[in-house]
Amino acid sequence: MPNFKDGVIRDGNSSIGSGSVLGNIKNGVIRKGTSSIAGSGTVLGNVKNGIIRAGTSSIAGTGTVVLNVKGGVVRSGTSSIAGHGTTVCNVSNCMIKGMEHEMDEAIVAAYHFLIKKLA
User: Fold this and answer.
1) What is the dihedral of CA 78, 87, 44, 30, to 10 degrees?
2) What is the pTM of this model?
3) Could you give the dihedral angle defined by the CA atoms of residues 100, 72, 88 and 2, in that order, rounded to the nearest 10 degrees?
4) Of 2, 22, 25, 78, which residue is most buried, by most CB within 10 angstroms?
5) How confident is the model at residue 14 (pLDDT cuts 50, 70, 90)?
6) Who contacts 100 (Cβ-Cβ below 8 Å, separation ≥6)?
7) pLDDT for position 44
8) Burial tier of 95 (Cβ tally within 10 Å: 0-12, 13-18, 19+)
9) Where do the domains of the chain lie?
10) Are 98 and 18 within 8 A, CB to CB?
């Protein structure tokens, strides 16, 4: 079961903060890598204003729109307006242990890019 601590997402079944590193999130940018330092690794995508984008830019708000989150619902589509598109699932289906207090779009983006593709 994946878990989250200090910006780093890990794959491990024991306590929060343990397990092998999958990636990290810092300033709305999701990165893949094995470093336990948030902000390092290969950029996979980013989040801003409820919109999840794929791309290699480390600037939040740039890239190709893949998902959006509004009112606890995850939607797919290319619109840059949160709440538009085809319903994929609820945010509760994308939970990562330890991320409960993060923004919904950050939770979904980390899940989508590092755990399992949603769209």
Assistant:
1) 120
2) 0.94
3) 0
4) 25
5) confident
6) none
7) 97
8) middle
9) 2-115
10) no
Burial tier of 101 (Cβ tally within 10 Å: 0-12, 13-18, 19+)? exposed
Cα–chain center distance at 23: 10
Residue 7: what residue type?
G
Matching residue, tokens 């929060």: 16
What number is the average pLDDT over the span 76-82? 93
Indicate if the pLDDT at residue 72 is higher than 90: yes
Q: Which of 55, 95, 97 is nearest to 74 (CA)?
A: 95
Separation of alpha carbons 65 and 70, rounded Å: 14
CA–CA gap between residue 93 and residue 118 (Å, rounded)? 10
- Candidates 60, 57, 59, 80; CA nearest to 68 is 80
User: Within the chain, what is the greatest distance between any pair of CA atoms?
Assistant: 39
